[in-house]
Specification:
With 388 residues, the protein is α/β, with parallel strands linked by helices. The protein folds into two domains: 253 residues, 3-Layer(aba) Sandwich (Aspartate Aminotransferase, domain 2), CATH 3.40.640; 118 residues, Aspartate Aminotransferase, domain 1, CATH 3.90.1150.10. The protein contains 14 helices and twelve strands. The strands form three sheets. The chain has a seven-stranded mixed β-sheet, sandwiched between helices. The chain has a three-stranded antiparallel β-sheet with strand order 10-12-11. Helix 2 runs parallel beside helix 10. It is globular. It binds pyridoxal-5'-phosphate. Pyridoxal-5'-phosphate binds next to helix 3 and helix 4.
């Protein structure tokens, strides 16, 4: 990513003006307006804004624990190809993380992989999938299966904002989904995150968990109910009454302001991201060194990155070096197989076979994809991909 914002110049000017004149900079009206606009954009009932995607994942799991829908010791499945702060809160909150393998054809977990893991771990209580790098698995089939088996289904959609399957937008299949607005994601509020859900009870609990465990951000009816249940009769005391285990992961008005501004531009960038991806894909057709990714099940591919899977580890190292020599920053596919990370081996360490994630760990890499990429930028990527 070259610039932190879509419409960089205009956004920075507007932000400067906003800071000079805003009556308040801690969470207030801008955050609320952004939540409403985001809920409308995502076509969901509730959107709860927080200070990062990591915080979104953390408070989602804490809220489910507070509601008793997940309990200490419960097994929670997750995509082996994911980000650290998708998996870390599973362990930190006393659940048992269970990695589910990803299909190298799409980088994502499909129902087949979930079923396979369930054969070994039949008492899994929830599955927290990651929609990887703008791609997704067969989310409708996973959703139906989870419903049938009584599994809680959650989506980490931090990398796939804007992607659509024929059945709907990614982020709308699970009980709740999380988003990140860190720089280089589909839109940026510098740091920021969101949780989306249709579930009223979960949304209320998320607002409690986001801010200190108090009831200040609830509707008057919910406040009344909570205070009655806890025999809080004094208005004076109610402001400093803490009902549930919580954090302070509130956004600021800067987050809300930037979110509203960036949302104006984000829709047209989905198409540009897809166009960039398809251009590179076209140039990779029949390439002897790369395995193509399959996105035939995806209606809108809001590609996070330009992702590549080489046919061997040696080839991957060769192309990584070539990209770097040409000044193009490259990374593993997210972070490779999460179960291979030092923290994972030290604190979790349960051994499962993950051949898909292993293959992508060894042979995959990606470079950035962003809407303002020029023809020369794309051409340079194509040149770096030439078999020589
Ligand atoms: C899949 C996934 N989940 C969660 C996060 C965390 O988001 P943040 O950086 O906003 O904390 C990221 C970050 O890139 C991510 O890729």
């Amino acid at each position: 990513m070259r610039q932190p914002f879509l419409q960089e110049e205009e956004t920075r000017r507007a932000l400067a003006q906003f800071i000079l004149t805003a009556p308040r900079l801690s969470m207030d009206a801008q955050c609320q307006r952004f939540e409403e606009a985001f809920a409308q954009h995502q076509q969901c009932r509730h959107a709860i804004l927080v200070n990062s995607g990591a915080s979104a994942n953390l408070i989602l799991l804490q809220a489910l624990k507070n509601l008793g829908r997940l309990k200490t010791g419960d097994k929670v499945g997750f995509s082996a190809l994911t980000w650290s702060t998708n998996t870390m809160p599973i362990e930190q909150l006393g659940f048992v993380p269970v990695p589910v393998d990803c299909n190298p054809a799409t980088m994502n977990v499909h129902l087949e992989q979930l079923k396979e893991r369930l054969r070994e771990v039949p008492d899994m209580k929830a599955f927290f999938t990651t929609n990887v790098l703008g791609f997704a698995g067969d989310l409708q089939a996973i959703k139906n299966f989870c419903h049938q088996e009584g599994l809680i289904f959650l989506e980490d959609n931090c990398e796939s904002m804007g992607t659509e399957l024929p059945e709907g937008k990614t982020g709308n299949f699970g009980l709740a989904s999380t988003f990140s607005f860190f720089v280089a994601h589909h839109m940026s509020t510098i740091e920021g995150g969101m949780i989306c859900t249709q579930d009223d009870e979960l949304a209320e609990m998320l607002r409690i968990v986001r801010a200190n465990g108090w009831d200040r951000n609830l509707s008057p009816e919910s406040q009344k109910k909570l205070r009655e249940q806890n025999q809080i009769t004094s208005e004076f005391k109610s402001k400093y009454t803490f009902y549930h285990p919580a954090y302070n992961v509130r956004p600021t008005e800067i987050t809300g302001f930037l979110g509203l501004k960036q949302l104006e531009y984000v829709v047209e960038t989905y198409a540009q991201r897809e166009k960039n991806y398809l251009f590179i894909e076209e140039n990779l057709k029949n390439h002897p060194h790369f395995s193509p990714f399959d996105h035939s099940h995806i209606k809108v591919l809001s590609a996070f990155s330009l992702s590549f899977l080489c046919r061997s580890e040696e080839l991957r190292d060769h192309y990584v070096e070539r990209f770097m020599k040409n000044g193009i920053e490259v990374r593993p596919l997210i972070a490779g197989n999460m179960a291979r990370q030092p923290y994972y081996k030290k604190y979790i360490g349960l051994d499962f076979s993950l051949p898909g994630a292993e293959l992508m760990d060894a042979c995959g890499f990606y470079c950035g994809n962003y809407p303002e990429m020029s023809e020369e930028d794309l051409q340079l990527v194509v040149e770096c991909l030439q078999p020589q």
